[in-house]
Design a protein that fits this description.
The chain is an alpha/beta fold. It is built from 8 helices and 10 strands. It is 34% helix and 26% strand. The structure holds adenosine-5'-triphosphate and magnesium ion.
């Protein structure tokens, strides 16, 4: 469903990704792993068109989207939850969802309710400004917001980073449900090995902007792979 080939990305003169290849088949869950600063977020931003690719190709669902603006990629079915649980802090929870739903051009209002069903903890706070939610609730809102556009692939950047443990489990369970029961393809940047091992069909390890290892999820138990991820 997603095929990235030879992706090159740079910030000005500083090149950060050097020919990255990555494939996420329909209905599968792929994990991107690696130490801090190796280029994981840069990769996801380039996949979504938030950053331009200097070289290489991004193909989604058979279409070359490499030069396509982000909003059109969203309309094609790519949903993005960026790192750092960003929400529209000044808007209410309900408006965060509504604004995104309207901007996406979606017609089916049911998507908002479905997203809230996945995170019932958000319902009592619908009229509260998002900036007043806890970090975990903001992350749930960020995921719900990506879902109201009814993506066929969900792209998440460290969705449980810095979040209180009780909500980490809820977020992991929600991702598992979306993947296993609703068949959503998922591209996940994840630091937690246990969660990655439980869910990943395939994983890719980046180091200094290069893919240094890839394999089936079960290989994450391998000592050599753990060595690549250790700080
Ligand atoms: N806006 C930017 N301008 C210049 N350099 C940047 C910018 N954003 C990131 N970088 C650099 O690009 C490299 C990759 O950063 P990136 O955020 O993609 O890493 P990451 O793997 O997501 O790290 P983390 O695990 O900390 O989230 C780093 O060396 C970083 O300093
Ligand atoms: Mg990052």
């Amino acid at each position: 469903m997603l095929e990235v080939t030879g992706l090159e990305v740079a910030y000005g003169r500083a090149q950060v990704l050097f020919g990255v290849d990555l494939a996420v088949p329909a209905g599968s869950l792929a994990c991107v792993m690696g130490r801090n600063g190796v280029g994981k977020t840069t990769l996801l931003n380039a996949v979504m068109g938030v950053l331009p690719a200097r070289g290489g190709r991004v193909v989604f669902d058979g279409r070359d989207v490499t030069r396509m603006p982000t909003h059109r990629r969203v309309r094609l079915g790519m949903g993005y939850v960026p790192q750092g649980h960003e929400t529209f802090a000044q808007l209410t929870v309900a408006d965060n969802l509504r604004v995104t739903w309207e901007a996406s051009g979606a017609k089916d209002r049911g998507a908002v309710d479905e997203a809230l069903d996945l995170f019932p903890r958000l319902r009592p706070f619908l009229k509260r400004r998002a900036g007043f939610l806890s970090g975990g609730q903001q992350q749930q809102l960020a995921i719900a917001r990506a879902l109201v556009t009814r993506p066929r692939m969900l792209i998440l950047d460290e969705p449980t980073e810095g979040i209180q443990p009780s909500i980490v489990t809820e977020i992991e369970d929600a991702i598992e449900l979306l993947h296993r029961e609703r068949g959503l393809a998922v591209l996940l940047v994840e630091q937690y090995l246990d969660f990655a091992m439980r869910l990943a069909d395939r994983f890719t390890v980046l180091d200094a902007g290069v893919v240094v290892h890839e394999g089936p999820g079960r290989d994450l138990a391998d000592e050599r792979v753990r060595g690549l991820l250790a700080v």
